[in-house]
Structure formats: structure tokens, C-alpha cells
Amino acid sequence: MAAVTGSWGTYVVEKDELSRGGVGSIHRTNDPDSVFKRYFDPARAPARTDLERLVEVGREVLIRQRRRPGETPESSVNWPVDISVDQHGAVTGVLLPIIPQVLFHEEFGGVRTLDFLVMARAKPPTAKGRIVLLLRMAEIFNFVNARGLVHAM
Predict the structure, then answer these.
(1) Can you give the pLDDT at residue 153?
(2) Which domains does the chain have, with CATH numbers?
(3) What's the domain of life for this entry (predicted)?
(4) Distance (Å, rounded) from C-alpha 97 to C-alpha 99?
(5) Residue 68 vs residues 50, 82, 86, 103: alpha-carbon distances, Å
(6) Alpha-carbon span 11 to 65, nearest angstrom
(7) Residues 6+ apart with CB under 8 A from 53
(8) Per 3-state DSSP, what percentage of the chain is helix, strand, and coil (rounded to 5)?
(9) Is residue 57 classed as helix, strand or coil in its secondary structure?
(10) 3: which strand partners?
(11) pLDDT along the chain (153 residues), means of 10
(12) pTM value?
């Protein structure tokens, strides 16, 4: 375990990875509702100014308004709530809310993604369930757009 200091607090981060991607790894923290994404190379991390804008939204929605992940369209985005930087000001990681277990696919183990809506082997939701999900996505994009943010794939 190691301590990581962000702009809003200090977090105890476990060494073992929960998952690993192309630019970073995800680790449990001393807060059961949060994980830490550690970037392998600060040069490949998102720009600090961009992350700071996202943290503003994340702290407003998840901390000040106390919205649970997925409760509202705006809390359905995995907003970062803190940033850690090195001694030179380069981003080393972000604190994120943990993804609720209900969003993981029981059979495949990973987080449900949009491809699970159409793959027969993934047992997609009913047509009504897909419409509800698409309406939620439209609400999310509306919120993101109203904040002057751009969604990128």
C-alpha cells in the first residue's frame, strides 16, 4: 500500500491491480466507494486542465450533491473526483468512484459495454430495456453538452 496525495485529500492505494488498460491500472483505495487510476506514463495521461474541469463536475455531482453512481443522468458518468500529480505537476492518477457491481456482466465478468446491447450471447435486455438505456444516454449527452464538454470515443 502507498499513500497518494491529491488536491482534495490523501488516499491509501493498494499495490495489487484490479484491472489494467493501455494507459493505466486501477487499484482499490482505503475508501470502499473509490478506486485510483494510476497512469503508467504521465506524458500519456490526459491534460491536467482537462481533468480539473472534469473533477469540478465530479465533485459537484458526487460529493456536494451526494448523488450515487447511476442515480441520475449526471451521476451516470464515472467522473474523477481528485487528481494526483508528481513534483513537476504532471498527472500521475485520478480518484474515481467504483463502478457499481450491477454494471458488471455476470457471465463475462467485465463491465457491461454498449456491445452487450446487441450481442445475442450476452443476453441483451429487452427492446424496452434498450430504449430506456438509450434515453438515459441521451440525457447524459445533454448534460455533458450543457457543461460545454465533448464526449470522445
Answers:
(1) 55
(2) 1-99 (3.30.200.20), 104-153 (no CATH)
(3) Bacteria
(4) 6
(5) 23, 17, 30, 13
(6) 22
(7) 149
(8) 35, 25, 40
(9) helix
(10) 12
(11) 91 93 94 95 93 96 93 94 94 93 72 75 84 92 92 67
(12) 0.86
Grid cell 458518468 — which residue?
77
Which sign, positive or negative, has the C-alpha torsion 91, 32, 104, 99?
Answer: negative
- The x, y and z cell numbers of residue 123, run together, are 443476453
Q: How many CA atoms lie within 13 A of 148 on its CB side?
A: 3
8-state DSSP, 27? E
Task: Dig out the grid coordinates for 50 from the structure.
Answer: 482537462
Please tell me what DSSP assigns to residue 68: P
* Alpha-helical runs (H) found in the chain: 48-58, 127-146
DSSP letters, 74-97, are: GGGS----EEEE-TTS-EEEEEEE
